[in-house]
Amino acid sequence: MDLNPKSSHSENLSALKSTAEQRLKNFMQEVTGRALVMMESATQGQHGIAMDLVQEAFISLHKSYADKATEEWYPLFYTILNNKLQDWRRKEARRAQPFSWFKKISLDDDDVEQLDIVDEQALNPAEFLDQAVTVEEIQAAIAGLPVRQQQAFMLRAWEGFDTQTTAQIMNCTEGSVKTHYHRAIQALRNSLAHMNPYLGGSSE
Q1: pTM assigned to the model
Q2: From CA 95, how far away is CA 23, in angstroms rounded?
Q3: 133 φ, ψ (degrees, to nearest 5)
Q4: For each of the chain's 204 residues, which pLDDT tens digit applies?
């Protein structure tokens, strides 16, 4: 009885699994830092919660989409991460409001579309940098934004997703993404202007 075909099949499966795990490891190394910054801002600096959300998203990605191409992982990962963040926010809102199960909890009070907003090009975060503005100050300014504005800015400016993909990740309309992103840019420029004269303020 020839066992070679079975052995070969088993070896192929093992090789595919090893390749997928290596791809995931490389992917995690690339996106973990940015994803953590996003989640720490969204959870108001709770590093442990942010780490848990990111790790859970990686586990779900590997469990459900290990066979997808690496390029497809980027929007899939951030969609999973956004869903886990929204679940966490709902639990926190219910914990803060003991009888909240009797009513629908709105997490997106700022989710109002302004359809006349032109789709803005994704900014390079470096535009906010000069000698007077540090990365820490930018991160603090981002953390002060409403969560949906944080997400729109981070996904568009930091991750480079277009409006359509960002809308799919955030589970909202493209008009909402445009609104959140526009408001985030304006708020960041206003909050950082006093430190950076190139943003319209004074460094004095």
Answers
A1: 0.74
A2: 38
A3: -120, 120
A4: 455 555 555 555 555 566 878 899 999 999 999 999 999 999 988 999 999 999 999 999 999 999 999 999 999 999 999 999 999 998 888 876 654 444 444 455 455 555 455 556 656 555 555 545 677 888 888 889 999 999 999 999 889 999 999 999 999 999 999 999 999 998 988 888 765 555 444 443
Nearest by Cα to 163 from 128, 122, 124: 122
Report how far apart, in Å, the C-alpha atoms of 177 and of each of 9, 66, 87, 125, 151 are: 47, 29, 20, 18, 9
The encoded tokens of residue 113 equal: 């579309």
Q: Which one-letter amino acid corresponds to residue 23?
A: R
As given in the structure block, the two tokens for residue 160 are 């480079």
